[in-house]
Specification:
The protein is an alpha/beta fold and 388 residues long. The protein has helices at 12-23, 39-49, 62-68, 79-86, 104-112, 122-138, 148-157, 190-193, 203-211, 213-226, 264-272, 286-289, 303-314, 318-334, 343-352, 363-386; strands at 2-7, 28-35, 53-56, 74-77, 93-96, 116-119, 142-145, 165-172, 233-237, 243-249, 254-258. It folds into three domains: 2-145, Rossmann fold (3-Layer(aba) Sandwich), CATH 3.40.50.720; 148-261 and 281-310, no CATH class; 315-388, RNA polymerase sigma factor, region 2, helix turn helix motif (Rna Polymerase Sigma Factor, Chain: A, Orthogonal Bundle), CATH 1.10.1740.10. The structure holds NADP nicotinamide-adenine-dinucleotide phosphate.
């Protein structure tokens, strides 16, 4: 029986994690669940899965949550409590499924405590890549990727010799605007951007998929996870989202992992690794799919991908700044304060006005670079909104 902590249990990945857990009650026990503000769903999940502890980020929601739950469930609130449950002495596996940079501190707490982390929260690795690597070297901790692309690569690399690896090829669906005329990008509404053709996901990652920043963040994630240089990570557009990524070996062979686009597969693999569970979900029929297509990404249409490669290559604090500027840009777009076509413009402009020296040596330094970038990006959004 594995004791599982789900950070971000009310989100898309969190809810699908609990679906898998529910299928296999003899294998997994839920130890802790967390949410930011959705206390009603958290309470519902807690009544169903009976975790020992639940955490709600917003302190003003402690009372309604406390009242909704039986006395034996411990209820905690605030940021520090997230890290406390992430490093709970009885946790065997921590699912890191908070969205954005907010997931970094609890993910680092889990790793520092030597836990196995099933990582969906790519922003944690993008912003804290160096620290995470350092922590992994010093502890018994390990990361099992949940992102479908990284899970695919992880599965393909199993049993292979590292020196045989030539390059990683990440697939991208291309999002909803792959073929839409670029001149109309300024008029794209949040509702349109939130309609992903293949995946049902949280709002932030869905917008990131539409700009291809999601793939850019995944390039940086792959760099840190698999210790591969940026020159050896490629992106290919694959609208069907059936091939979840590939590895090219030095003899020219390409190995891939294929399945229907269903996050419950990579989630289940991370939960049960190295075993595979007999999952009851719909299966891929290649005959039904019929055709798989691939094309190169268009850098003019999707400048975010180029921005991410640049920030990754520069290293140091630049991925932190890239991520922070992107989080501000996406939030501003969803609030209709920034048009879709200006998301990459805002990120580029923000980064061009910043300077950093050295490499992140501590979580505090990363958080400080993040705050500095957010303040600048917010100021730019305001200036742009006010200017005629
Ligand atoms: N969704 C997918 O299919 C998918 C696939 C691959 C990777 N990922 C990655 O997985 C992560 C989660 O994505 P998602 O789509 O599941 O996001 P989501 O649906 O927006 O859920 C986010 C979760 O994080 C919580 N949360 C939000 N802000 C927080 C904060 N400041 N502190 C603590 N908790 C916070 C939310 O709580 P409330 O509900 O209370 O707001 C919710 O439980 C992202 O990094 C994403 O890139 C997602």
């Amino acid at each position: 029986m594995k004791n599982i902590v789900v950070l971000g249990s009310t989100g898309s990945v969190g809810r699908q994690t609990l679906e898998v857990v529910e299928e296999f009650p003899d294998r997994f026990r839920v130890l802790a669940l967390t949410a930011a503000g959705n206390w009603k769903l958290l309470a519902e999940q807690a009544r169903r899965f009976r975790p020992r502890v639940v955490v709600i980020l917003r302190e003003d929601l402690y009372s309604p949550l406390r009242e909704a739950l039986p006395g034996e469930t411990e209820v905690l609130c605030g940021e520090r409590a997230l890290s406390e449950v992430a490093s709970h002495p009885e946790a065997d596996l921590v699912v890191s499924a908070i969205v954005g940079m907010a997931g970094l501190s609890p993910t680092l707490a889990a790793l520092s405590a030597g836990k196995t982390v099933a990582l969906a929260n790519k922003e944690a690795l993008v912003t804290g890549g160096e620290l995470v690597r350092g922590t992994l070297r010093k502890s018994r901790a390990r990361i099992l990727p949940v992102d479908s692309e990284h899970s695919a690569i992880f599965q393909v690399l199993k049993g292979q010799r590292r020196r045989d690896l030539k390059r990683i090829i990440l697939t991208a669906s291309g999002g909803p605007f792959r073929t839409r005329p670029r001149e109309s990008f300024a008029r794209i509404s949040p509702e349109e951007a939130l309609k992903h053709p293949r995946w049902r996901m949280g709002a932030k990652i869905t917008v990131d998929s539409a700009t291809l920043m999601n793939k850019g963040l995944e390039v940086i994630e792959a760099h840190y996870l698999f210790r591969v240089s940026y020159d050896r990570i490629r992106v290919v557009i694959h609208p069907e989202s059936i091939v979840h990524s590939l590895v090219e070996f030095r003899d020219g062979s390409l190995l891939a992992q294929l399945s229907l686009p269903d996050m419950r597969l990579p989630i289940a693999y991370a939960l049960s690794y190295p075993e595979r569970l007999p999952l009851p979900y719909p299966r891929l029929s290649l005959v039904e799919v019929g055709r798989l297509t691939f094309e190169p990404p268009d850098p003019e249409r999707f400048p975010c991908l180029t921005l991410a490669y640049e920030a990754g290559r520069r290293g140091g604090f630049w991925p932190v700044a890239l991520n922070a500027a992107n989080e501000v840009a996406v939030a501003a777009f969803l609030e209709r304060r920034l048009s879709f076509d200006r998301i990459p413009v805002l990120i580029e402009e923000t980064l061009s006005r910043l300077s950093f020296s050295g490499k992140p040596g501590s979580l505090e330094e990363i958080l400080s670079a993040d705050r500095r970038t957010r303040a600048l990006a917010e100021r730019l959004v305001e200036e742009w909104t006010c200017s005629p």
